[in-house]
Structures are given as C-alpha cells and as structure tokens.
Amino acid sequence: MNDILLRADNLTKYFAVRRGFPARRLRQVHAVDGVSFGLRRQEVLGVVGESGCGKSTIGRMVVRLIEPTSGKVVFDGVDITALAKRDLRNWRRRLQIIFQDPYSSLNPRLTIGSIVAEPLVIHKLCTKTEIRNRVADLLKKVGMSPDHMRRYPHELSGGQRQRIGIARALIVNPELIVADEPVSALDVSVQAQVLNLLGDLKEEFRLSLIMISHNMSVIQHASDRVAVMYLGQIVELAAADEVVMAPCHPYTVALVSAVPVPDPRAKKERILLKGDVPSPIDPPAGCRFHTRCPHAKPRCATEQPELREVRSAHFAACHFSEELYA
Predict the structure, then answer these.
(1) pLDDT tens digit string along 220-253?
(2) Sign of CA dihedral 297, 303, 307, 312
(3) Is there a contact between 319 and 306 (Cβ–Cβ < 8 Å)?
(4) Does residue 158 fall inside a structural domain?
(5) Per the structure, how many domains does the chain have?
(6) CA 29 to centroid of chain Cα atoms
(7) Is residue 284 assigned to a domain?
(8) Which end of the chain has less neighbouring CB within 10 Å, N or C?
(9) What gap in Å lies between CA 46 and CA 228, rounded to an integer?
(10) For residue range 6-17, what is the model confidence (pLDDT) as tens digits?
(11) Is 169 within a domain?
C-alpha cells in the first residue's frame, strides 16, 4: 500500500486586488507560492508561521474550498483539483475541515443534533433512527452528552462548540482532517483538552491530520512533522522535535526563541527580527526572508533558495543552512 495519502505539488494561490469603478484588477496577493509536501497515512503534519503566511489558504485548497491558481492536490492517487464539482461530492466525506472560529462555523438556527447530523443527511448515509444513534454516540466520544443534541450553539461554551465542530467533521468517517487553528479561539485551560481529544480521536479513527497554527508549542505537542511557512512558502520541513530542538533556517530559529520556557530560572536568548513582514503583493526577490534575516548575504537578495535536504529527512530553504547550523 502506498504510504502517502495526500501530496501537494507546487500549489500556488494568487488573489487579485481590484480598485475603482468598474473594478479593475491592479495587482495580486501572493498568498501561497509554489508549496509542495506529502502527508503519510495516520500522520499529523503541523503547518506553522505568522499570520498571513498562507497556512489557512493551503488547508482550504487541500479540501477544495479554495481553487488553486496552479498546482495540484493528489489524494489517494487521484488529482482532486481536476475533478468536476459533481464528481468531487463523493470525495468530500473523505476530507473534512475543522474551522478556527467554533461559533461562526456553526449555524445558529440549527440544534447541535442537526448540525452534527447534516453531513449524514447530505451524503444519504443513514436512516433517521440510525442518524440519531450515531450522533449521540459520537457526542459521547468528543466528551459531550447526548442531551446537548437539543441545544443551540449560543448555549455552549467555546470549548464545547469546538467539540461540536470536531464531531461534525468525524461523523462521515473521513480519512483526512484539516484542523485550521482549532484551539486559537479557546482559553488556555481548554486548549490542552481539545488537543488531547484530537490525539485520541486520531488513533481511534485512524486519521491523518493537517494541523494549522501560529503557536509553535501547540504544533510541537500535536504533530509528527512540521512545515514552517514564511510569506507563502515553506522554509523548513522536518520532524516536530527536530524543528524545535535543532532548526536549520533563521526564521525557524527566531520562531522557536519566542516559545515560552516553563522554568522561570532558565535563561533563553530571544531573537528579535528587524523590520516588518514584506507585503505579499510585492514579495522580495531572492530569498523572501532576506530583508529580515540577521545572516543575509548578497546572494540571498538575488537567488531564491530551494527547499533541500540539509540533514536526514530535514529540509530547509536557506543557502547557508550547513554553514550556520552544522
């Protein structure tokens, strides 16, 4: 059996910027620019980076909520970016998404039971009696009571609403779930509960996960491998612990330095990057990080580095990774 469940090949997404009346297309936002990666079966791939780096856009392209400008997504051997919408419906149940805001992603006019059952109704997978039993059983699995089926989203806490979002994604037994910032809108005390729940459900349902977050601590805890993004491109890809303990890209080093250490006596050097993130409308030539990189050289301003293997199964897009982090 092929171990790769999903493969993204050179994914690109540009959004047009329009002004005036009638609206004229002036420039393009380079949201995602040439991203490639693979996801193994029952693996958790973390995608981390600053806000606006293209993380969520990648997640939505993977499940085809957003159409890519170019590139393709191959799921279980089939290029789903080439499927017509009528053919894509049969694949929807195999790819699901958990949204960042658990409140706005739930229909306030529907009860919790109707929200969780909706995918079963759309795909015509169960009878009415079977639907009720299946929803009640799944609510128990995500730490909720079947009595919550009669409630509405506004009657639940943020953590409970996110559990409903998880249940809705799981109800059709998908193979892949994209979790787009699943804990960023929750209290810190609830975040660990939801992350542990996702880990338990991943083992029980034999899921593959793409975990999107701006929080490196969350990504390290929840992921097997981590892809670090900067301004629409992957700059580092490796096992989660290796990315945190031995990063090979200056941007990753700066990200890791910002992660709080639980020991108040521990001393840790914080790396502050100079300047602001460049505009994705007009990204820098060469290495996109060179305008803020403390190790930038003239070559970085003219030549774009490739994402290459600098250690065993550790990839980085930096001309000088071996020299800086040998």
Answers:
(1) 989 999 999 999 999 999 999 999 999 999 999 9
(2) negative
(3) no
(4) no
(5) 1
(6) 20
(7) yes
(8) N
(9) 8
(10) 999 999 999 988
(11) no
Please, are residues 214 and 54 in contact by the beta-carbon 8 Å criterion?
Answer: no
Q: Which positions ≥6 away from 14 have C-beta within 8 Å?
A: 28, 29, 30, 31, 69
Among positive and negative, which fits the CA dihedral 15, 19, 24, 26? negative
Closest CA to 255 of 219, 279, 298, 225: 219
Q: What is the dihedral of CA 248, 231, 202, 100, to 10 degrees?
A: 140
Alpha-carbon span 183 to 251, nearest angstrom: 24
Sheet holding 314-316, edge to edge: 95-98, 176-180, 208-213, 44-48, 225-230, 233-239, 314-316, 308-311
Domain around 189: 4-94+174-262+269-325
74 closest CA partner among 86, 85, 64: 64
CATH of the domain at 16: 3.40.50.300
Per-residue pLDDT at 1 exceeds 70: no
pTM over 0.90: yes
DSSP one-letter code for 153: G
Within a domain: 130 = no
| H helices present in 8-63, as ranges | 55-62
Q: Is the peptide bond before 247 cis (omega within 30 degrees of 0)?
A: no
Residue 262 predicted with pLDDT over 90: no
- Rounded Cα distance between 316 and 102, Å, is 34
Q: Identify which of 192, 198, 132, 196 has the alpha carbon closest to the alpha carbon of residue 170.
A: 198
Neighbours of 215 (CB within 10 A): 16
The answer to whether 204 and 120 are in contact (CB under 8 A) is no
Choose the weakest-confidence range: 54-58, 72-76, 185-189, 248-252.
Answer: 185-189
Rounded distance between C-alpha atoms, residue 280 and residue 265, angstroms? 40
Statement: residue 25 has pLDDT above 70: no
